[in-house]
Amino acid sequence: MRISSLQCFILVATLSFATCQCHAQQPTPGSTEVASLPKIAGITTVFRKNSHAEVIIGRLIRGYSLNDEGPRPALTLTSLFTDQVPKSDLSRAWGTQYGFPIVDSVNEALTHGSKTLNVDGVLLVAEHGDYEKSATGNKQFPKRRLFGEVARAFEKAGRSVPVFSDKHLADNWDDAKWIYDRAKELKVPFMAGSSLPVLWRYPPVDTRRSSNIEEIVAVSYGSLDAYGFHALEMVQCLVERRAGGETGVRSVQCLTGDEVWEARDAGLFSSQLYEATVDRLPVKRWTKRNKTLEESVREPVLWMVEYRDGLRASILTLNGAATCWTAAWKYAGEKRIESTRFQVQEERPYGHFTFLVQGFEKMIETGKPTWPVERTLLTSGILDALLTSKLNGGEKLATPWLDVRYTSDYEWKQPPEPTVEATSK
To answer: Which of 80, 362, 396, 404 could disulfide-link to 378, CB 3.0 to 4.6 Å?
Structure first.
């Protein structure tokens, strides 16, 4: 079922009021009240319609509903840098219309041309644009370069402000770890990641905190680099709550084609959990074609992740059958299986991005990350390792460098229910 624009507006307005009643009172761009709001610099690759930059940074410009009406973040965009300017660029027209400057460098975005830091936070959104892919098939967005320029401005100013970096830290482990270490060195309040950990779940369940999760199986779809990252963040936000916290990853392996079904039949992952994830798919597309699921998926992909404490995670990309993300898990010593579907809104105004912006806003208010950046450091590294395994013919890859240990006190809560469920294809 699809959520209408009006229903989404009601959803977002309700959420914004419940989260921070002051949102309902926020001034529109250009008003004198804007000057008192925290000043945010936007650093992007491209700013076009429906890009991540537009649906994240655009909420500071046009409000949560992206239509100049209703609630908006208690933040103001004071500068925008775009690394590329395609023909579809919106930033120049919007800068004129809404009164924010388009600048020529990252440093200028943060300093406004002065010798000091002149912003209260940074939104780094590098997700679209004309960039080459790596040998593993991961698109090489200039995240290290852009964050490096942010870091240089912080270092020169002698202080740092909160930064949110959209999706993975970088397309490869070396750059991701460099960014993480640099942020630590400069004491940057730092967050990153996917919208999946913060959006709607059907049913609205989470893993039990401090429980002994034995195994988790998930279903994904889409491209392995972009959508596969979302799947990893979905799994990680569930398993990081287990007893003892996150321990890091011992090894990964990527199988494709018939090897996926052979692995299932050989018991390399739980068939019960697999069936539970499939049952959570809202539409069984293969049944309408009088086919089996296996016949509908031309090129299945299986990611197997072994954690250092023995936890096993398996993620199946099932293009042709799946159109959303689902997960199922079980606890040691228990027969009961829990499962859920993670659901985005697949039409404007893409309400799930509201929850990312609100997480960033909370960090601006408190000076502390709303969820741990270590989650995204680990998922960035897992993705790079899995794509390397695929490149090397599906070999099992030991990953001693993914010794990423952390605990998370983040508590997910189901966003206010729309009149109908969030969009599903």
So the answer is: 404
Q: Report the C-alpha gap between 13 and 8 in whole angstroms.
A: 8
Q: Tens digits of per-residue pLDDT, 86-99?
A: 999 999 999 999 99
Name the pLDDT band for 21 (thresholds 50, 70, 90): very low
- Three-state SS across 380-412? HHHHHHHHHHHHCCCCCEECHHHCCCECCCCCC
Give the Cα separation of 213 and 1 in Å (integer). 32
Is the separation of the CB atoms in 166 and 56 below 8 Å?
A: yes
CA distances from 201 to 204, 207, 339, 361 (A): 5, 12, 10, 22
Question: How far apart (Å, rounded) are the C-alpha atoms in residues 109 and 102?
Answer: 8
Read off the pLDDT of each residue in 363-376 and give the average, rounded to a whole number. Answer: 98
Token pair of 394, please? 């599906």
Residue 421: pLDDT band (50, 70, 90) is very low
- What is the phi-psi region of residue 32: left when phi exceeds 0, alpha when psi lies from -120 to 50, beta otherwise? alpha
Round to whole Å and give the CA distance between 102 and 107: 12
In the chain, the domains with their CATH numbers are 5-195+349-370 (3.40.50.720), 198-346+378-402 (3.30.360)
Q: In whole angstroms, what is the distance from residue 385 CA to residue 375 CA?
A: 15
pLDDT classification of 2: cutoffs 50, 70, 90: very low
DSSP structure string for 249-282: EEEEEEEETHHHHHHHHTTSS-HHHHHHHHHT-S
17: pLDDT strictly greater than 50:
no
- Residue 216 pairs with which residues in a beta bridge? 313, 329
CB-based burial label for 184 (10 Å; 0-12, 13-18, 19+): exposed
Q: Phi, psi (5° rounding) for residue 314? A: -130, 130
**Nearest alpha carbon to residue 229 among 44, 382, 401, 54:** 382
Cβ-in-10-Å burial (0-12, 13-18, 19+) of 31 comes to: exposed
Task: Answer positive or negative: Cα dihedral of 247, 251, 255, 260.
Answer: negative
Q: Give residue-wise pLDDT tens across range 231-252.
A: 999 999 999 999 999 999 999 9
